[in-house]
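Entry under discussion copied across for reference:
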Amino acid sequence: MRCRGKTSDHTPGAGKEKRGNMLYHLLYPLKEYFGGFNVIRYLTFRSMLAFIIALLFVLLVQPKFIAWVKSRRIGQPIRSDGPQTHLGKQGTPTMGGLVVIAAMFVATLLLCDLTNIFVWVALGLTTSYAVLGFKDDYAKVTAGNSKGVSARMKLLWQVFAAAVAVLILMLFAPGFSTQVGFPFFKDATIDLGWAFLPFAVFVIVAASNAVNITDGLDGLVTGPVMTVAMAYGIFAYVTGHSEIASYLQIPYIAGVGDLAIFAAAIVAGGLGFLWFNAFPAQVFMGDVGSLALGGALGILAVITKQELLLVVAGGVFVVEALSVIAQVASFKLTGKRVFLMAPIHHHFELKGLAEPKIIVRCWIISIVLALLSVATLKLR
């Protein structure tokens, strides 16, 4: 199954397309009076502007949100069976991811093409996962425990939302194909046809849950989310640029370039959040942030046709998720545990590593993996 779109209307070196975004229509006509407004046409400029808007939004709004949450005593419940050092974090304001998601939405809606189906699919999927995360967080803080929404309900919600998003892409998105490429190999692709649906759903749901699992230390998940989003912002830009895509011998999909703005807003939102979430955290992201941002990374991977590279770029998330799977499987099959505690960041805590050291080392690893994943654009 393959849908084909129109040929590229890009010109060499430019990132300019027909636009339906708010700031374009507001500012571009002013170029008649000041030529500098002409830059609003360019995708690279709008991506940088989205970064600035999202960053300032979080830096300005997050303190007010923290104060509001504190005034209503909405604090994070801590697992009683977790590391004892975490018990002091009981009651820390949570659901700070709401501000990050809001910042991403504002920047994206202001600067993306609002007639672009890829933008709306990404925003829709992210919204549905944010709603799920909010329900989970709300259930936790109102009940005063760390249980929240049941695992079965979470999974059903995630699968349904992802399936709707992928079906929309397969049936209505021009130029989107069901082919899957293999990193490091130029011509190694396979067309999955309708089997692409469960494959893509798995990618999105797995990404969302892996990011959620990783969110266990102050700032731990934020760094990798930023590096993966930055990598996929690059993938979105080159995939949506006909000449660069042709040069790199990757699939060209008209309109995907706008998701570079979406990705830039995620990076900036994460950077702003890190100001308040760095050890010791003033606010936690909550499932409203981690489930939504994980889903956003998953849909970016699917739309840019770099699904398998998410295993490389998001290697930290993969290891965290696999540590939980290995721990549960080993205990059920043998009655023994592989790690002192899962996810693996808790294992390192119990081994005596300081929390900030674990966090920064994971950031370093995620930066290297993101650079490696971008390098595959040439290593093929």
